[in-house]
Design goal:
The chain has 521 residues and is an alpha+beta fold. Helix content is 47%, strand content 15%.
Length: 521
């Protein structure tokens, strides 16, 4: 039904979805809070670059170009600035920064990826306006129970410039819009996928494995006892330290990189934190998360990884595994399902507080106040102005309140919404399911009361409330959360694959890598 309810969940949601999903993602990464180490963790993004490939030679020499990405360049100045930010973040976490010969290639790869994203965003005509940025900053401030001005003082007090922080938020909105445009339409999460995910969550909980960002849902009614031979799907969580081997590396270079991987393996086996070593030295895209690659069905991991950790107990480290990407050191976070997990079991890890990103989903009943409503919508056009739309609805309201005419009959005759054939019926509405002006007016009405004309971005409305009830939405909430998480995971994987294809089809001249090879670093 393309009624206001449908509009609120489609048009309105889609127009705000880029910002909202971006802010959700930022919250998951710790960027929508005032925890400054998390802000610095990803580093302040480089500003969107203009085409600088046509600079005069003198300017190029002054900047010191370290990479060329299609028609854009990355300068030594930009790279050095990002390295300083990364070192400051590592110091804040009390992690020894790796030598520049290790850190520089990692940071440069991030800058190359960001440049490709910016180029694709320009090609897709994605523009993040100041209005969109300011709206995002307002929401971030609101989530931190503060104002934008106060938030700015705290951020600058932590040594991060406001322009860097704003640029970071702007860039993440841009990347999210790009993701939506190029891959989201290809992602589909079925009810069967949701059912499978919830079963896996239950298996993790029963296996005492805090592996998922969200715990198992509240216990469902007990099913019939399983047959003795029934085995739950085996799942496994892995983390990695990757030493990347660039394409075209010589035998000597491969040998040196294997020696580097061996040195990292020795460090973690001597007691250094796997998480810290991964953050400081891994070339993998999940390095900032301590190498955590998440949890999958055991059959979904590459055979190379599955075989490499076949005899590795939970919490322990594999030997070096060679793949076309380079050298991997894997840590088994834990297992569940299938065969009983080997001893010792991993110690329970601290989980975020309820209601925080990645924290527990509220357990037990979730009573939600629902409202049953109808409406009549008059849309504004070049001919139908706001005054005309409002006057029409005032006349319709008088016919209902004073003349006793049927709200449904008048909705069928005059409403511009597709709910008109059903008499303007919107069904049972949950909080937040309609646009704010509509919901505020609806919540102020008594049952059977007709509102005065209410304006929203869709036009002018008359609203009548037919009933209210309290409904337990726990099961639906869990299913919605599972569907959203699966969508985000699949979208992220699809976007990474798309970006890798863009990278393959792009001209990338990594001068820093060439220089290091020539110098034998």
């Amino acid at each position: 039904m393309a009624s206001l309810k449908a509009i609120a969940m489609t048009r309105s949601t889609k127009r705000a979805n880029s910002l909202q999903r971006c802010l959700t993602w930022l919250a998951w990464m710790g960027l929508a809070t005032l925890a400054m180490p998390s802000v610095a963790q990803l580093g302040a993004p480089a500003p969107v670059r203009a085409n600088t490939a046509q600079k005069a030679p003198a300017d190029r020499d002054a900047d010191g170009i370290v990479a060329v990405v299609n028609k854009d360049v990355i300068t030594r100045r930009e790279l050095d600035a990002r390295i300083r930010i990364s070192k400051r973040e590592l110091a804040a976490q009390r992690i020894q920064a790796p030598p520049d010969s290790v850190l520089e290639p990692q940071i440069l790869q991030r800058l190359i990826t960001e440049t490709l994203e910016q180029q694709e965003a320009r090609r897709q005509r994605i523009d993040i306006t100041d209005t969109m940025l300011n709206a995002a900053l307002e929401i971030v401030a609101k989530r931190n129970n503060t104002t934008v001005a106060s938030m700015r003082k705290q951020i600058e007090g932590a040594g991060i410039s406001w322009s860097d922080y704003s640029s970071m938020i702007r860039r993440e909105i841009m990347v999210e819009q790009l993701r939506q445009k190029v891959v989201d339409s290809t992602i589909f999460v079925s009810d069967a996928d949701v059912d499978s995910y919830l079963r896996e969550q239950k298996a993790r909980k029963e296996g005492n494995l805090p592996l998922s960002v969200r715990p198992a849902p509240p216990p469902a009614p007990k099913p019939p006892p399983p047959k003795p031979q029934a085995v739950k799907p085996a799942i496994m969580g892995l983390a990695q330290i990757l030493v990347r081997v660039p394409e075209g590396s010589t035998d000597e270079e491969v040998k040196a990189l294997r020696a580097k991987a061996q040195a990292l393996l020795t460090r973690v086996r001597r007691g250094e934190s796997f998480d810290a070593v991964a953050k400081s030295s891994s070339d993998g895209p999940e390095a900032s998360r301590g190498g955590d690659m998440g949890v999958r069905l055991a059959t979904d991991w590459p055979d190379l990884f599955t075989k490499g950790v076949a005899g590795v107990p939970d919490g322990q480290i594999s030997n070096i595994i060679k793949s076309p990407n380079g050298f991997h050191i894997l840590k088994v976070i834990g297992r569940a399902g299938g065969a009983p997990p080997p001893e010792p079991k991993p110690k329970p890890q601290a989980t975020p507080a309820p209601g925080t990103p990645g924290g527990p989903i509220p357990q037990g009943p979730m009573p939600v106040q629902q409202t049953q409503a109808r409406h009549i919508l008059i849309k504004t056009t070049a001919v139908v102005t706001d005054d005309i739309a409002r006057q029409r609805l005032e006349q319709i309201r008088q016919r209902i309140v004073q003349g006793g005419e049927s709200f449904s009959d008048l909705a069928k005759r005059f409403s511009n919404d597709s709910s008109a054939p059903q008499g303007g019926v919107l069904g049972w509405l949950n909080p937040g399911e309609t646009v704010p002006p509509f919901e505020k007016a609806m919540n102020a009405l008594k049952e059977g009361e007709v509102s005065v004309p209410v304006q929203s971005q869709f036009g002018w409305h008359l609203i009548i409330v037919d009933g209210r009830r309290t409904q337990d939405m726990a099961d639906q909430f869990l299913r919605n959360q599972a569907r959203q998480l699966l969508f985000q995971q699949r979208s992220s994987v699809a976007f990474d694959a798309w970006l890798q294809q863009v990278r393959t089809n792009s001209f990338i001249d990594n001068r820093l890598e060439k220089s290091q090879r020539q110098s034998g670093r």
